Amino acid sequence: MKYAKNILETIGNTPLVKINELAKEIPALVLSKYETFNPGNSTKDRMALKMIEDAEADGRLKPGGTIIEGTSGNTGMGLALAAIVKGYKCIFVLSDKQSKEKMDILRAVGAEVVVCPTDVEPEDPRSYYSVSKRLGEETPNSWYVNQYDNPSNAKAHYESTGPEIWEQTEGKITHFVVGVGTGGTISGVGKYLKEKNPNIKVWGIDTYGSVFKKYHETGEFDEKEIYPYVTEGIGEDILPENVDFSIIDGFTKVTDKDAAVYTQLLAKKEGMFLGNSAGAAMKGLLQLKDEFTKDDVVVVLFHDHGSRYVGKMFNDDWMRKMGYIE
Fold this sequence. Notes:
By secondary structure, the chain is of the alpha/beta class. It is built from ten helices and ten strands. β7 (175-179), α6 and β8 form a beta-alpha-beta unit. The protein is globular and about 55 Å long. The chain starts with 15 loop residues before the first strand and ends in a 5-residue tail after the last helix.
């Protein structure tokens, strides 16, 4: 009989799905790495499990311990599923811009959720970076994950996502495109693919209000680039250690409005019910269309599921209030 011994064994081996209607302007074959098929409905399940297994192996996470992390929701879900199976408690720190659905889902799987203001500097004691770090110091028998600087994050994608994409495209992939937040996905997948074929181009999708694009192009960390933005899960006001800029060929920035509109369009034109960063990635692909030729095979990774954005990008009242639709 074929069955998984627990839910964690269903992580990975997600399908590649062709994008049709929305990719008409793009000369290449455009395929999406459809990560919502993971049990926690996002690509973050991969690195959540890897980070936990590595922390168990070297003794940072001890039996009965508490896992503490700052998350925009998806990493928390992956960590929570692994924690349930392995017997840990979880405390997750989110910023108040994250959707209510994400907070509710984390509570539904037994995690304690702490909400912090978005509109503060990373060093501010109220920021979600600072609060998660402080909780990690104060909570007995706890382990602070720190997905931004935890090398197991990128390693998970080097060991699983990259090889899957290579095998599924029979090594024909020419471009990999993905939204960049912690940097684990782009760096891990990009490293694997470039070791297989150094000519593969790796493109990051960034958002306005984030430092990545300018830093990649100039080497300057420009604080004037930083301001609040609506798009969830991509962009940063810090430089995570997981972002390996040497692997990335370029960035394109997508507006909050375009990301939201294309999140809806993916559902309505492709039947792909996906999260906000997928809308950003789809619009970013269209912005990059001159980079591709008819012989290219472009793989774009879609991170998470539309159910987490029902009150926002899939709510026309919210979209009108934001000025994104008439």
